[in-house]
Design brief:
The protein has two helices and 13 strands. A ten-stranded antiparallel barrel has the order 1-2-3-4-5-6-7-9-10-13. A hairpin with a 4-residue loop joins strand 6 and strand 7. It folds into two domains: about 1-30; about 40-295, OPCA outer membrane adhesin/invasin (Lipocalin, Beta Barrel), CATH 2.40.128.100. The N and C termini lie far apart (about 70 Å). It is mainly beta.
């Protein structure tokens, strides 16, 4: 009897341990591996904050000063199409930033002036990329396209006199050329580097005096072509994928842009029989900023 009971007990224990139901429960509790599969579409939505630093210079007037600087918030949107079997990709980007910044300069007669100026920048970029290689976690893509940038300055020289200031609009069309390098540290973390230059195609400058009118009673607006130099931009994103199709990234960027001295208009005063020249001086703009972005892959 003793030997028989021991055999039954041992059999019962074995049945519990190797029960198919118990084994299936263990399998369901095992976490599935994290894998990011290819998706043709990716949408990126983000906010940005940049330090804006603008300086004008006139070689013939070393003491001339006209500067603007301050923190400017903005938003950014990107759409990317990249099919699995094609090395080509398409990307569309839209950025808008705007705020008021500190103006530290002077009037045309040399009187110093420190005030606030309004600022808004709208950028649209369309590019096509070609993937050179993608192996061992590395991916290198060359890209080129078309870039449009519109910057509006609102300068109010005398706040107690509405309409005493003037608005300036800088428009620029350029060809961006660069490369994008990405490296996957693991299935979740990804780092990248994206340097590029923008070769100028055309530029236009428009000057508007809200409080002034022409002899015909129309608003005083002067415009002409604007000489733009080659700009440079570099950005370095760090991305963490929360889900195979959803991720968050921190993108640090730096950008510089130059404009060359350009003749805008020549004014003729009938009463005094005198002329005055409106010109845009040499200038350089620096942007230091960061973006926090949400990535959605479909």
């Amino acid at each position: 009897m003793i030997s028989l009971r021991a055999t039954v007990a041992k059999t019962a224990i074995t049945a519990v341990v190797y029960s198919p139901v118990f084994a299936s429960n263990l399998e369901t509790r095992t976490e599935a591996p994290f894998r990011r599969h290819h998706r043709d579409h990716e949408i990126t939505i983000g906010t940005e904050l940049q330090y804006f630093d603008y300086k004008e210079s006139v070689p013939s007037k070393p003491s001339f000063k006209s500067e603007e600087r301050g923190m400017v918030p903005g938003i950014a949107f990107t759409y990317r199409l990249a099919q699995r079997k094609s090395p080509f990709s398409l990307m569309a980007q839209l950025n808008y930033s705007g705020s008021s910044v500190l103006y530290d300069g002077g009037l045309q007669d040399g009187t110093p002036l420190v005030t606030q100026s309004g600022l808004s920048i709208t950028q649209v970029q369309l590019t096509t990329g070609y993937s050179l290689f993608k192996q061992s976690g590395h991916e290198l893509t060359l890209f080129a396209g078309i870039h449009s940038r519109t910057w509006v300055r609102q300068l109010d020289t005398l706040k107690k006199a509405p309409g005493s200031g003037y608005d300036e609009t800088y428009s620029r069309l350029a060809i961006p050329v660069g490369f994008q390098w990405k490296y996957s540290l693991n299935d979740r973390f990804e780092v990248g580097l994206e340097p590029s230059i923008a070769l100028p195609l055309s530029g236009f400058f428009e000057l508007t005096y809200p409080g002034a009118t022409t002899m015909e009673g129309k608003p005083a607006i002067f415009g002409n072509t604007l000489k733009s130099g080659t700009s440079f931009r570099v950005q370095a994103p760090v991305t963490y994928w929360i889900h195979p199709d959803y991720g968050l990234s921190l993108n640090l960027f730096f950008e510089t842009l130059t404009f060359q001295e350009s003749h805008i208009a020549t004014l003729f005063y009938v009463r005094s029989w005198q002329t005055a020249t409106i010109s845009e001086p040499d200038s350089r703009t620096y942007h230091y900023g960061s973006q926090i972005r949400l990535h959605i892959r479909m």
